[in-house]
Amino acid sequence: MKRAGLIAGVLLAIAATDGWAASSSPPTRVSGHAAEPASAKLEELETILLSRNDNDPRLDLDFNGLSTEDKRLFRKKYREIAAEKRNERGTIVYLLGKNLLTSEDWKFFRQVALEPPCLSLSDCSKKPAPGSDEEATGDEVTLAYPSLVALRQAARVVERSRADRVSAQGASKGGAEKAALDLFAAAKNSNIRAVNRLAGSLDKKFALP
Questions:
Q1: N or C terminus: which one in the chain shows less Cβ crowding within 10 Å?
Q2: Where is pLDDT greater, at 49 or 174?
Q3: Residue 112 Ramachandran class (φ > 0 left, ψ -120 to 50 alpha, else beta)
């Protein structure tokens, strides 16, 4: 599923809860005194981020099965990107969400889902001036985008896990599914309305009988 489609999925999921929708050799990087080869996947990611093309087919084709080191570098890149760059951060979360395997992966997703609110695309720490163009055009889905993507990608983990259990005729719930359900439960306490609403919807949807 293309990442642009994920945006639509986020909007529809939130709308369903209360009836609204928002509208050659690789170069090296120097770390301390040692130079380390740049990750080819990280360089590809950086190229895509610069292009700002949400429909780049590489997003769906080239980032499955990321290595532990690639994921570490992607998380580092996420933290280096300015908080106001919601789309870029959301893209990284989307790609890491295709590779949720370890406790470290889920720890990062929990941190993203529970991030403090971003109040403005010009400065996450400040609300836009009343009546400003930014206040008129901003919306809570855009501001909460990385957190919402984290929740939607976690939901896919649950869906795959349950489909696998059906085919395996009732195998027990896996660790990844439990991590996702724990994430939904925690995110219900977010003070970001779009996040707690989506988390509540997913928590209810996947609640065991």
A1: C
A2: 49
A3: alpha
